[in-house]
């Protein structure tokens, strides 16, 4: 661990204890969502899942090191499935584009017949389905525990009501590669944002993720921890909780001036049913799908346009004294 980098002080939640219904762990979970909106999840009780993670990383390394013409065959011009090349959106520094490529598959697609999936994903569909099903189980149980802590359920609308398995949603598995780079001219990192959906389950073994910290004010690196995921609250859960939970602003940026090695990360974005309605950061009544589509459109705008509306960062930069 590089102790010269400013680190975010995040809580560590133990998945084994949380899954078993440990009340103290549930209270710690609630506090983490109230406070930073980011926390580590210790997955040492899931050795098979951690082994699958290694297998998915090997798949990603093989896929992303194909030539660009081959990968572009999987370009679906979509925000939820297929390949997306480097430089599609604005990056982490003014005037420069992003510097990552991605391969995505929606949960609905993975559970379908697979015919619309990129062939590389279709060939590893069993692995990726098993991998996603565990991540989905984790985030749903986290939602259930948050409901229990808040006293939701019974006659009150619960978070789970917006995440029925048979409802169409944009829940997505996203695999990212930040390529090694020789010059900044091509782009930098992943622009500041809050996540669109409900909860994000993130796996990454390398430095680069930063969160805009509330306590240690300013940008802080989220240190990678072996055998741990990073879980964060998204805009939808923030809105559905009446703005109680914190959807923290974060970005990806090299720890040095350039990206000196390929950086890989995997994100499972749990998103509410497309027709879920909530009040967004501008006070509008919107659907989960509308918020998703509008936010991705803003990702591709110039930095100047992004600053005009509280969409990319979910309005979080306008709360309190935080400035990004």
TrEMBL record:
<keyword id="KW-0560">Oxidoreductase</keyword>
<dbReference type="InterPro" id="IPR027443">
    <property type="entry name" value="IPNS-like_sf"/>
</dbReference>
<dbReference type="InterPro" id="IPR044861">
    <property type="entry name" value="IPNS-like_FE2OG_OXY"/>
</dbReference>
<dbReference type="InterPro" id="IPR026992">
    <property type="entry name" value="DIOX_N"/>
</dbReference>
<keyword id="KW-0479">Metal-binding</keyword>
<feature type="domain" description="Fe2OG dioxygenase">
    <location>
        <begin position="166"/>
        <end position="272"/>
    </location>
</feature>
<dbReference type="InterPro" id="IPR005123">
    <property type="entry name" value="Oxoglu/Fe-dep_dioxygenase_dom"/>
</dbReference>
<dbReference type="Pfam" id="PF14226">
    <property type="entry name" value="DIOX_N"/>
</dbReference>
<dbReference type="GO" id="GO:0044283">
    <property type="term" value="P:small molecule biosynthetic process"/>
</dbReference>
<dbReference type="Pfam" id="PF03171">
    <property type="entry name" value="2OG-FeII_Oxy"/>
</dbReference>
<dbReference type="GO" id="GO:0046872">
    <property type="term" value="F:metal ion binding"/>
</dbReference>
<protein>
    <submittedName>
        <fullName>2OG-Fe(II) oxygenase family oxidoreductase</fullName>
    </submittedName>
</protein>
<keyword id="KW-0408">Iron</keyword>
<dbReference type="GO" id="GO:0016491">
    <property type="term" value="F:oxidoreductase activity"/>
</dbReference>
<dbReference type="InterPro" id="IPR050231">
    <property type="entry name" value="Iron_ascorbate_oxido_reductase"/>
</dbReference>
<comment type="similarity">
    <text>Belongs to the iron/ascorbate-dependent oxidoreductase family.</text>
</comment>
